[in-house]
Design brief:
mainly alpha
């Protein structure tokens, strides 16, 4: 996949993750893209390590989108936890 494909997938996976995990986030559009891109990479890596499958096959593969969204949800939860802890102090 090209860098444009990763950015587009990251944006969409981040938006879907925010829709599945509603709440107030301190980040904007750029943060959503970065969480989505990193989440796609994390999801692909976790799929390879845990299930021993190549989960990042292509842009239109369902396994790629599931891995990207799950990874984005994980990173969004971590981001909310860290940002919330920092805000309380």
């Amino acid at each position: 996949m090209s860098i444009i494909g990763w950015i587009l997938m990251g944006l969409l996976a981040g938006i879907i993750a925010k829709a599945l995990m509603p709440g107030k986030d301190p980040g904007g559009c750029i943060t959503t893209i970065l969480i989505g891109i990193a989440g796609a990479l994390l999801g692909g890596w976790l799929g390879k390590v845990i299930f021993d499958v190549e989960s990042i096959d292509g842009f239109f593969e369902l396994s790629t989108w599931i891995a990207a969204i799950v990874g984005s949800l994980i990173l969004l939860a971590v981001y909310r936890f860290v940002a919330g802890a920092r805000k309380r102090h």
